[in-house]
Design a protein that fits this description.
This is Kinase. By secondary structure, this protein is α+β, with helices and mostly antiparallel strands. The protein has helices at residues 130-141, 148-157, 200-209, 213-216, 238-241, 249-256, 263-286, 334-362, and strands at residues 3-6, 9-11, 30-34, 45-52, 55-62, 67-73, 78-80, 91-93, 113-115, 120-123, 170-173, 182-189, 218-227, 232-236, 290-292, 295-302, 316-320, 325-327.
Length: 363
C-alpha cells in the first residue's frame, strides 16, 4: 500500500529536537511515497542537507515510518509550495522526461524535477535496493581514489554520464540545458535487462515486456521530437516502443531525425549521434570494471534550426539509469556491447538510406 504525504508548508527548527514536519490536506499532490497508510499528522523527522544553486536541498528521514522522501527549501529552512503543483517553490516537473518512473503512469511517483535555472535535474532515489545501487554507482565513478588503468577507464566513463553533485540525493546535470528545443530519445541497451540474481518470475516478466530484445539487444523507451515547421512536439512512450520490430526502425529514426526534407541536416545529426555512440562502444571494449543491466543511452540534438548556441547545435549521447550496475566483474560486458553494436548497425543502415536519397535528389 502507498501513503501520500500532502504538504503545504514544511518548517524545520535549528536544533535536532525542534525539527518538525507540518502537513495538511489542502494540496493534492504527493511529496513522497511510504510503505503504509496513515492520516496526515505531525511527524518527527531527521534530515540530511546539501546546498546548491543558492538553496538548501533537504533529504528527510522519517523516524516513525523508517523511510525516506525528499523536498527542497531555502536557506531559512522554510519551504513555500507552488499553488498548482504542490512542489517546492522554484522546483518544477522536468517536461522532457520520456521514460522511467513518471506520474502519468505511476501517480504515486514524483518523476524527475528541474530547478528553475534548468542547470540541474533532481532524480528521486528509487526504493531499495535499486536506489542504493544507482547512488553507489555515481559515488564510485566520481570519487578520486582510483589508480592505474581503473582510474583511466573511469575518467573516460565520466564523459558519458551526468555529473553527480551530492551523496544523499541524485542532483545531476541537466543534459538538455543547452538546447532551446531538445529532441530526445531514450534507448535501453542490452539483451538481458534483469540482474544475474533475478528470480525466474522476474526474468519471465522482463522477457514478456519485449520478447525480441534477446535478438536485437536494445529497446526504444520513448522520444520527444520538436517540429519547427509547425511549432509542435511529437512524444512517444515506452508502450509505443514495445510495438516496434526491426522493420519499423528506419521509420523510428526518420521520425526522430526529421528535418522537413533537408537531408544534409539529417545526415549531420545522425553522424553526430553515431560518433558519440561509437565512443561509448569503444570504451566498453576496453573496460572490465562494470556490468550494466537495464541501463539506457539518451540521444539529444537541437530541434530549432535558428538556435545560435554553438553547443546546442552539437548532438549528444549520454549513458543514464544505473540502478542495476555490478562492480568489479573482471570481464567484458558482452550484454551491453551486443546491444550497442546492434543499435549502431541499424542506425548506420538508416544513415546509408538517407545518403542514397540525398544522391537521388541531386541527380
Amino acid at each position: 500500500m502507498i501513503i501520500k504525504i500532502y504538504t503545504r508548508e514544511v518548517t524545520f527548527g535549528t536544533s535536532p529536537d525542534s525539527r518538525k514536519l507540518l502537513k495538511n490536506r489542502k494540496s493534492h499532490k504527493s511529496l513522497g511515497c511510504f510503505a503504509s497508510k496513515v492520516k496526515p499528522q505531525k511527524m518527527k523527522v531527521g534530515y540530511f542537507s546539501i546546498q546548491f544553486c543558492g538553496s538548501l536541498l533537504i533529504y528527510i528521514f522519517s523516524l516513525q515510518y523508517n523511510n525516506l522522501f525528499t523536498t527542497c527549501g531555502s536557506l531559512s529552512y522554510s519551504v513555500e509550495m507552488n499553488e498548482d503543483s504542490a512542489l517546492p517553490d522554484r522546483i518544477y516537473p522536468f517536461k522532457y522526461q520520456i521514460a522511467g518512473h513518471h506520474p502519468s503512469t505511476k501517480p504515486e511517483c514524483i518523476g524527475v524535477l528541474v530547478y528553475e535555472d534548468e542547470e540541474k535535474v533532481l532524480k528521486p532515489l528509487q526504493p531499495k535496493p535499486r536506489g542504493e545501487v544507482e547512488k553507489g554507482f555515481y559515488e564510485n565513478i566520481w570519487n578520486d581514489d582510483h589508480v592505474g588503468e581503473r582510474r583511466q577507464l573511469i575518467l573516460e566513463l565520466r564523459k558519458f554520464v551526468p555529473k553527480f553533485y551530492v551523496h544523499s540525493f541524485l542532483v545531476l546535470d541537466n543534459l538538455l540545458k543547452f538546447y532551446r528545443q531538445p529532441c530526445v530519445m531514450d534507448v535501453k541497451i542490452g539483451r538481458q535487462t534483469w540482474e544475474p540474481a533475478a528470480t525466474l518470475q522476474r526474468v519471465q516478466y522482463e522477457l514478456k515486456k519485449y520478447p525480441i530484445i534477446h535478438k536485437i539487444g536494445f529497446r526504444f523507451l520513448g522520444m520527444s521530437v520538436y517540429r519547427e515547421l509547425n511549432n509542435e512536439r511529437i512524444t512517444k512512450d515506452k508502450e509505443w516502443g514495445k510495438t516496434l520490430y526491426p522493420e519499423h526502425f528506419n521509420d523510428v529514426f526518420s521520425t526522430f531525425f526529421h528535418t522537413d526534407n533537408i537531408h544534409a541536416t539529417t545526415v549531420k545529426r545522425v553522424e553526430g549521434i553515431l560518433m558519440e555512440v561509437k565512443a561509448i562502444e569503444k570504451w566498453f571494449q576496453r573496460q572490465r570494471l562494470f556490468a550494466f543491466y537495464s541501463s539506457s543511452i539518451l540521444l539529444a540534438y537541437e530541434g530549432e534550426a535558428s538556435s545560435t548556441s554553438i553547443t546546442a547545435k552539437k548532438p549528444s549521447v549520454h549513458m543514464i539509469d544505473f540502478t542495476h550496475v555490478y562492480d568489479d566483474t573482471d570481464k567484458n560486458d558482452e550484454n551491453y556491447i551486443f546491444g550497442l553494436k546492434n543499435f549502431i548497425f541499424y542506425l548506420e543502415n538508416y544513415l546509408s538510406d538517407v545518403k542514397s536519397d540525398q544522391l537521388m535528389i541531386h541527380d
